Amino acid sequence: MVLEKMRHIEWKGDSLKILDQRKLPGKIEYAYLKDLEEFHQAIVEMKVRGAPLIGVVGAFAVAALAQEIDAKSKEEFLKEIEKGAEYILSTRPTAYNLKYCVNTVLKRISECEKIEDMRKVAVEEALKLFDMEKENSRKIGEYGEKLLNDGDTVLTHCNAGELATVAYGTALAPIRIACEKKKCIYVIVTETRPAQQGARLTSWELLKAKIPVTVVADTAVGYIMSKGMVDKVIVGADRITGEGYVFNKIGKYQIAVLAKKHNIPFYVAAPTSTFDTNIEHEKVVIEERSVDEIVFVGRKRVVARGVKVYNPVFDKTPPNLIDAIITEKGTLYPPFEKSISTLFSNQKL
Amino acid sequence: MVLEKMRHIEWKGDSLKILDQRKLPGKIEYAYLKDLEEFHQAIVEMKVRGAPLIGVVGAFAVAALAQEIDAKSKEEFLKEIEKGAEYILSTRPTAYNLKYCVNTVLKRISECEKIEDMRKVAVEEALKLFDMEKENSRKIGEYGEKLLNDGDTVLTHCNAGELATVAYGTALAPIRIACEKKKCIYVIVTETRPAQQGARLTSWELLKAKIPVTVVADTAVGYIMSKGMVDKVIVGADRITGEGYVFNKIGKYQIAVLAKKHNIPFYVAAPTSTFDTNIEHEKVVIEERSVDEIVFVGRKRVVARGVKVYNPVFDKTPPNLIDAIITEKGTLYPPFEKSISTLFSNQKL
Fold first, then answer.
1. Active-site residues of A: which are they?
2. Distances from the Cα of A47 to the Cαs of A33, A203, B198, B200, in angstroms?
3. Which of A119, A283, B97, B101 is 20 to 30 Å from A256 at the Cα level?
4. In what order do the strands lie in the sheet with B9-11?
5. Which ipTM value was assigned to this complex?
6. Which residue of A has its CA nearest to B216?
7. Contact residues, chain A, for B251 at CB < 8 Å
């Protein structure tokens, strides 16, 4: 695991060291996050991105803040930490893992009596979430690799790899584990406009892992499917509702429609921290980001001044387009409303 | 017609003045094509692009070459001009208009006896094709606008506008004419990676024509359709076979699949010079262009060195995904095999 050695996220005792993903693949540049504002900015500006990773970063943001708060009572401390947590949650609205991780740390803090303990458990809990996400990714990989055959070409979108998580990845974990088990897997990744996570991050990560990868434009998905070049699709998720609606990077929905049209299995890989079983899919907020992501290419303006641009960065894939959802607790199959409900009732899948 | 005043293509007696479309929207820069090599390069490098436009440019390439050839006999002249024509045809394999226009000029030349006449008719014929394409676009606009209702939002892909033709455009002609007739039409255009003709050219052209236009990433098509934001799709074509298979910019096929899924009418607009009724759709060559179109963004490398890239730039939309094909001779409806056959038998549509 080349990237793990690189430590793209590492708790340094009083700050979080992160690899600045905006600079990849051209530059390996780290940033150190300590103040709440630095964490907030790193998530907003996508120095770190990927649902599981921003979840863990959010947990460390709360942990770091806990060290800084100067409060006279538990109540005052909790008020301050909750305010800070809200600020972190306001960074990006669509992914659920951020909420899950931040709330998990908050809950643990609120169970303490002494401020000193609160500070201590905050870090403990963030580190635990870090380990848990790593472990979850590994398990997703182990369940998911069973769905892959030797020789398969797998299409993925965006980056749901090691860089989007703590290790292994979500969508890329089954591919990594399959390769560890000596299956030959070929990956095709979309460029993933506007932020180009597929072209910039996934291909770089797989190149380092020596897994064959080819980049295509987002416009080429239908064509390569129609030519029989894709055996399976595996993608990540930012939020999955109780009915199995999957919110993820813009473009995922149309890939799912195209996969169905060409009879290609469409799999989603995500840890249970991505599941939000208490929300109706109509109510999930689709983040819109700066139009500059489309207007400018580097520093060059490619869209004329005065032209409107619309830049939603997530979309929703309905359960009827999904063949399986791979979690760390096993692989879920349709009807998802039932299999997800069973999963969260802690029943056997 | 703002762009027509700008004359993005103009015969200057001994050379062809063209607007360098690679530089848009940032710079208005013209180039003058005189030597065969200059014409060849302009088409290959996409200084000019768009099936009807490169057809007309190809005609002028032959006309310009006809002035240059120093031959002693008709046979020698024809041999030279055919060699030059082959070189121009080798620039881009998918669009049919280039072949149509080049061959039309060649045919006219071959009917002459004197070399002096050959030179004269070559220019005459190129100018005639120029006028014909302009007239055809206007007629496509008039037939096509009947399919548009006041208030419609029309999605288009790439640039099939004035810049892709001599005037009006193909896909954009119905929109322009509808607007002239005081219908309110809103346009959404995809960025169209890799070469960004939608973001760079279509939005610029429509902004100048004061037609409301919004740019979206290619990944957002499924999402905006699922949100009910698109009433109709109109796109251009590079080659249409006798059975109604439409070859056009990569990404068109997947838009057609998505339109069908969301019950949105999908219209193709193209002059009859785009129809190649003598070829089987399996035999049409899909051009692949330099991977640098994806690897580099301006001068910045966004895909790591060593990663493979696949860059097909056209795809094929089957007739069963198309609701109508708008030509200068009327609008064709399914079954296209029959309506196209009728069109080319000069029967009443």
1. 238
2. 11, 18, 29, 28
3. A283
4. B9-11, B16-19, B30-33
5. 0.95
6. A310
7. 217-220, 222
Quote helix, strand, coil % in chain B, to nearest 5: 45, 15, 35
Q: What is the dihedral of CA A89, A94, A100, A106, to 10 degrees?
A: 10
Both tokens of B154, joined, read 């029309």
**Which residues in chain A touch residue B248, judged by CB atoms under 8 angstroms apart?**
none
> In this complex, do A315 and B216 lie within 8 Å of one another by their Cβ atoms?
no
Task: Say if CB A277 and CB A243 are below 8 A apart.
Answer: no
Strands (E) in chain A, as ranges, are: 9-11, 16-19, 30-33, 153-156, 186-190, 213-216, 232-235, 239-241, 246-249, 266-269, 275-276, 296-297, 300-301, 308-309, 314-317, 324-327, 330-332
Distance in Å from the first CA to the final CA of chain B:
30
Closest-approach residue (CA) in chain A for B196: A302
The answer to whether B303 contacts A199, with C-beta atoms less than 8 Å apart, is: yes
Of B214, B301, B315, the CB nearest to A310: B214
Instruction: Round to whole Å and give the CA distance between A40 and A44.
Output: 6
Largest CA distance in chain A: 67
Place of tokens 């999904």: A322
Residue A216: burial class (beta carbons within 10 Å; 0-12, 13-18, 19+)? buried
| Closest-approach residue (CA) in chain A for B198 | A303
Q: Do the bridges between strand A186-190 and strand A153-156 make them parallel or antiparallel, or are there none, so unpaired? A: parallel
Q: What is the pLDDT along chain A (349 residues), one digit of tens a residue?
A: 445 566 899 999 999 999 999 999 999 999 999 999 999 999 999 999 999 999 999 999 999 999 999 999 999 999 999 999 999 999 999 999 999 999 999 999 999 999 999 999 999 999 999 999 999 999 999 999 999 999 999 999 999 999 999 999 999 999 999 999 999 999 999 999 999 999 999 999 999 999 999 999 999 999 999 999 999 999 999 999 999 999 999 999 999 999 999 999 999 999 999 999 999 999 999 999 999 999 998 788 999 999 999 999 999 999 999 999 999 999 999 999 999 999 999 654 4
Rounded to whole angstroms, how far apart are CA atoms A216 and B193? 10
Cα separation, B62 vs B66, in Å, equals 6
Record the pTM: 0.96
Give which of B230, B150, B130 is closest to B189, Cα–Cα.
B230
- Cβ distance of A226 and B26 shorter than 8 Å: no
Three-state DSSP string of A134-181: HHHHHHHHHHHHCCCCCCCEEEECCCCCHHHCCCCCCCHHHHHHHHHC
